[in-house]
Amino acid sequence: MARREYGKSRRELNGSLPLGILDQSPVFAHSGAEEAIAATIALVREAEQLGYARYWFAEHHGKEHNNTSAAPELLIARMSGETQHIRLGSGGVLLTHYSALKVAESFRMLETMAPGRIDLGIGRGTGSNDETEVALRSGIVREGAFDERLVELLSFLEKRTSAAAPFPGVTATPAISRIPQTWLLGSTAHGARLAGALGLSFAYAHFINGDAPEVTAAYRAAYRPSTHSQHPRVLLTLAAFCSSDAAERSDYLATLALRRARMRLEHDPLPPTREEARTHVPTAEEREHIEKTLRLAVAADPAAIQEQLQALAARHTADELMIVSVTPDAASRRKSYESLAAAWS
Fold first, then answer.
1. Which among 65, 77, 85, 81 has a CA at the least distance from the CA of 24?
2. Residue 158: what pLDDT?
3. Mapping DSSP to helix (H, G, I), strand (E, B) and coil, where does residue 98 land?
4. How far apart are the C-alpha atoms of 159 and 227, rounded to whole Å?
5. Which of 118-132, 152-166, 199-213, 240-254 has the lowest mean pLDDT?
6. What is the rounded CA–CA span in Å between residue 319 and residue 314?
C-alpha cells in the first residue's frame, strides 16, 4: 500500500490505495460498553501491525446499546501512546455540539502528543436523538450555523484573527507550527461543496448514503487549494466484510441490515444476535432499510474483495479507502480486518 506523506508502518500493505479503519466501537449482542471499548483498543494495536494507514474513532451519543465511542479525542490520546506509525483521528468530531476554540485546542494538543499523525475529521450531523442533542448543547452560549462554526474552527487552527472575527485577538493553544490534517465528513452534495470551497480533504460516507458518485464529483468541482491541502483528496468510507466462509458473510449482512433498520426506526435498539437475524421476518417499515443496507454493503471472500472495493474507489476517483465493519461479534470483526489486510497485500 502506498504511504505517500504518511510515513511507514511496521508492515506495508501493497494495494494501490491506502486502506484505513473507521471504528464506531459497536456494542455486540450479549456484551456491553466496556467490552466494546476494550475491543477497539485491541483492534487499533493490531491495525498498526497489519499496515492500515489510518484509524478513525466515530462519535455518537445516547446510544447505550449500539455505539460507545462518545469522545474520539480521548481514544486518540490513549492510542497515541500505544502506537508509533498509524495515523489516528476523529470520524468525526460533531462540531455542532462544541466550542470551535475548544476543538481546535484539543486537536492542537493531540498533535503535540503524536506529531504528524493526527487527523481532525469534522462531522456535520448530531450523532444523537433530539433530547441528547439538547443536553449536549446546553452549555453553548452562542448558537450559529454549522458552516459559520466550521470557518471559525479553521481560523483557530490556522491562527488567523481579524477584527471581523467572532473573537478577535483570541488564539488557540498550544502554539505549535503544525496543525492536524483536517477533513470534512459528509454524505451529501452540500457537505462536498463546502469541503471543496474551504480547501479541505473530503471523507464521503458511502456506508450511509450509498453509491452516489455525483457527491464526490461535486467536491472536486468546488475544490480550491488552501493551507490545508493544495490538491483535492477523497476518502471513501465503505461498509465491508471479508471472509472465505459464505455463512459468515451471510450472518454479517443479515445482522448489519437488521441492526441498521432498527436504528432508523428506533433510537437505541438492542443489537440482534446471529440467530435472530437469520430467522427474523422484516416488517414493511424495516424492509426498505434492510434492502438499502444490502445494496451498499460489500461482503466478499479474500479473492474477490480487493477488486470490488477498488471498483467502488474508481467510481468516486477516491484517493483512499476506509472500512467500517459492524459484525455480529468482536472476533468476526477482527478476523475480517485481518483477512482484508492479507488480501490487500
1. 65
2. 82
3. coil
4. 12
5. 152-166
6. 9
Is pTM beyond 0.85? Reply is yes
Amino acid at 65: H
DSSP-based three-state secondary structure for 177: coil
C-alpha cell at position 10:
511496521
Of the candidates 146, 217, 145, 128, the one whose C-alpha atom is nearest the C-alpha of residue 184 is 146
Taking only the tens place, the pLDDT of each residue in 186-195 is 999 999 999 9
Cα gap 88→119, rounded to integer Å: 6
Phi and psi at 26, nearest 5°, equal -70, 145
Q: Which residues are bridge partners to 241 per DSSP?
A: 299
**Which cell numbers in the block locate residue 113?**
502528543
Which residue has 497489519 as its cell numbers?
50
Mean pLDDT lowest among 12-26, 86-100, 160-174, 292-306: 160-174
Pairing state of beta strands 181-186 and 54-57? unpaired
Burial class (CB in 10 A: 0-12, 13-18, 19+), 171: middle
Residue-range domains of the chain with CATH: 4-344 (3.20.20.30)
At 258, list the grid cell. 437488521
Rounded CA-CA distance 182/199 in Å is 10
Query: For residue 186, what are the β-bridge partners?
Result: 204
Q: How far is CA 157 from CA 15, 144, 173, 174, 334, in A?
A: 33, 19, 9, 10, 35
Spell out the residues 6+ positions from residue 275 whose beta carbon is closer than 8 angstroms to its own. none
Paired residues of 110 in beta bridges? none
CA-closest candidate to residue 240, choices 302, 159, 147: 302
- The number of residues in the chain equals 345
Reference 241, options 305, 164, 296, 153; nearest CA is 305
